[in-house]
Design brief:
Largest sheet: none
CATH class of one domain: Mainly Alpha
Main location: membrane
Helix content: over 70%
Number of helices: 4
CATH topology of one domain: Methane Monooxygenase Hydroxylase, Chain G, domain 1
Strand content: under 5%
CATH superfamily of one domain: t-snare proteins
Membrane topology: Single-pass type IV membrane protein
Subcellular location: Endomembrane system
Distance between the termini: 114 Å
CATH architecture of one domain: Up-down Bundle
Keywords: Coiled coil, Membrane, Protein transport, Transmembrane, Transmembrane helix, Transport
Family: Belongs to the VTI1 family.
Length: 224
């Protein structure tokens, strides 16, 4: 994510440097050339606004421990953008006053000046149309992201539901296994008890037989 932010920073630096240069040239130009330069700067400022929006989105995706540093950098870029807009606004005001004075003070060139004004208005209209189209595309992209996010959320919920059922089945099997182990343990305990009882019985019977043999031998010897 930080690499994307730094790429946006490079674009920001390049475009703002061009804007600064062009804003400084506006007062030195006149006529159609000045009009085109004003429109060009206006368009580039819109690109910078879009860059700042993208940088803001990138900052939100950066891990919290690193986010403060990028927020500070983004804040300085926004301040730089405000200064550029103010400088451009002053240049445009001076430019508008100059055009108005030319229209009012030069009757011989009034038709040409009116034509320039119409071209400027037409260029502004086209520029505004482009802005509306870009805004519409961003809205469509945002809607698409929302739809995709909803689909992903539904898939996650379905997976969680499936995982929950699997866990419940595993718990049931575990309980059954535990019950079977308890039953097997009781059976083995009973078998062991009977084995011990049988061994004791065999031992007792063996002892009785041995004792009987000893007594028989003893009484047999005494009879002789």
């Amino acid at each position: 994510m930080s690499s994307d932010f730094e790429a946006y920073e490079q674009d920001f630096g390049t475009i703002t440097a061009e804007i600064t240069n062009k804003v400084g040239r506006i007062p030195k130009l006149s006529g159609e050339e000045k009009t085109q330069l004003v429109l060009n700067v206006d368009k580039q400022l819109e690109e910078v606004r879009e860059l700042l929006e993208q940088m803001d989105l990138e900052v939100r995706e950066i891990p919290v421990q690193s986010r403060a540093m990028y927020n500070s950098r983004l804040k300085s870029y926004k301040q730089e953008m405000e200064k550029l807009e103010k400088d451009f606004k002053r240049s445009r005001i001076a430019y508008s006053d100059e055009v108005r004075n030319e229209l009012l003070g030069d009757d011989a060139g009034s038709s040409e000046n009116q034509l320039i004004k119409l071209r400027e208005e037409r260029a502004h209209l086209l520029d505004n149309t482009e802005k509306l189209e870009r805004s519409s595309r961003r809205l469509e992209a945002g809607y698409q992201i929302a739809v995709e996010t909803e689909q992903v959320g539904q898939e996650i919920l379905a997976n969680l539901h499936s995982d929950r059922e699997k866990i419940q089945r595993a718990r049931e099997r575990l309980r059954e296994t535990d019950a079977n182990l308890g039953k097997s343990s009781r059976i083995l305990t009973g078998m062991l008890r009977r084995i011990i009882q049988n061994r004791i019985l065999v031992f007792v019977l063996g002892a009785i037989i041995v004792l009987t043999i000893i007594l028989a031998i003893y009484f047999n010897l005494r009879g002789h």
